[in-house]
Amino acid sequence: MTRYADSLLSEGEEVVLRTRQHPLATIIEARWPWLLFIASFALLIFSQGMADGQVRTVVGYVVLGGFVISLLWLVKIYWTWLSQDYLITNRRVVKVEGIINKRSADSSLEKINDAVLTQDLWGRLFNYGDLDILTAADVAIDQYRMLNAAPRFKREMLNQKHDLEGDYSRPMPSPPLRGGVAMPPPAAPVPPPREMSADEVTRALAGLADLRDRNAISPEEFEAKKAQLLARL
Prior knowledge:
single chain; alpha+beta; 3-stranded antiparallel β-sheet; 7 helices
């Protein structure tokens, strides 16, 4: 069965690390239902020595109510814990909580500036901690309390952020080379020569004839230029 958090992933997004709160968090949160369960059990034993049957009946209902409430309470706490999904993907950090009514929050890796990890003695012994994810303005945008394997979570998050920023900073590939030599850019097209009037051609021919007579150009060059001029009429 696909978990709810997996349905939030975009195309090409991959889960790198999945975790939740440390199991000790459930023990701390479940202390009151456990106390109610133990108290109900102790009252059940105490009621066995009561002589008054009516009082025993009333106490029995109280004990039954205590058992039912404490068990339902415990089921809710452990089901809520199992429904947690704290994900690190190759693009963001995703936090999903809730049994029926889901609450999801995510932080894009490129917007994360740092993460503050706090571990007391018990956290270091049992491998959990409190993690605050910070933006560039040093404002905590998400908080994880009693996070399981918190040092690994922080380390993997920063690694993925570094890899993502490396993808963005890579230069674009250069155009392919042919035969190992860069090809020169194509030359701009040469516009066709404009047409000339008969008077312009006559004056140009007279100038060319004068250059030929003074041996500035050869007769062959004169004939070639003359043909070009006549072609522009």
